[in-house]
Write a structure and sequence with these properties.
Blueprint (H helix, E strand, L loop, with lengths): L6 E9 L3 H10 L5 E8 L3 H7 L5 E10 L3 H12 L8 E6 L6 H6 L23 E9 L3 H9 L7 E6 L4 H7 L6 E10 H15 L8 E7 L2 E2 L9
Antiparallel strand pairs: 1-3, 1-4, 2-3, 2-6, 4-9, 5-7, 5-8, 6-7
């Protein structure tokens, strides 16, 4: 039985309008599974001025990539978008525990690998810091409650996506209160050492027992470029 390389989810956050360029870059690397979402940054005007940013509208590109190709793909993305410079965006990976069976067959077969990557495995990226991605799903209009709590624990900003809840009737009956279908998903990157304090503060201000009806969870982050040390943002 053929064994395929482990896959990761590559998340790229750039200013609105640059997402298509990211998709083109990843397609050129024969990464065929990518999804472009519209997001909005939550950084304050002071932070925007500090980094010389002109807008908070964001493109969020989600891509699947074999683990052994992460270093090359992130390097190419950094060369194109200059993520290593402040304010240019962020790219990071999240490990996956499972994926549709056909996906690794497509991404990892030899004809979808550049010639220089067909022999041997790349060394994994050397990451000295451990990070986490905190996702908070709250009622529409509750963004300020989330970010005020997060900033109280040192977060500088995050990225928000608009969503809509479906199939909520059973949950409403179980919880005993009505859940608003329109949602905001707030994503905040943070050093692992700050994760617990951030989640506790957000849960207190915008958790399930508040009007925000927030649900929080965190995901591990393996590889990260564009995140400024000592901060929490996405």
């Amino acid at each position: 039985m053929m064994r395929y390389a482990r896959l990761k989810m590559l998340v790229t956050i750039v200013d609105r309008g640059k997402g298509a360029a990211a998709v083109s870059l990843y397609r050129a690397q024969r990464l065929h599974f990518d999804y472009l979402c519209m997001g909005r940054g939550t950084a304050t005007s002071v932070i925007l001025d500090y980094f010389g940013l002109s807008e908070t509208e964001k493109d969020v590109v989600i891509t699947l990539v074999p683990d052994r190709r992460v270093e090359t793909v992130i390097r190419l993305a950094d060369e194109k978008f200059r993520f290593s410079s402040p304010g240019q965006g962020i790219v990071f990976t999240v490990p996956l525990s499972g994926v549709s069976g056909q996906v690794p067959q497509i991404l990892c077969r030899p004809e979808n690998l550049p010639d220089h990557e067909k022999e041997g495995d790349e060394k994994p990226m050397d990451t000295n810091s451990k990070y986490a991605l905190i996702l908070t799903i709250v009622n529409r209009g509750s963004l300020d409650a989330v970010m005020d709590a997060a900033r109280g624990e040192g977060a500088r900003g995050g990225t928000v996506l608009h969503a809509r809840r479906v199939g909520m009737e059973d949950t409403e009956n179980l919880l005993g209160f009505t859940l608003q279908p329109e949602k905001e998903v707030v994503a905040i990157l943070t050093p692992e050492t700050q994760k617990r304090a951030l989640m506790s503060a957000i849960n207190k201000a915008a958790g399930l027992l508040t009007e925000a009806r927030g649900i929080l969870f965190s995901l591990p982050v393996d590889d990260l470029v564009g995140f400024q040390a000592g901060s929490a943002e996405a």
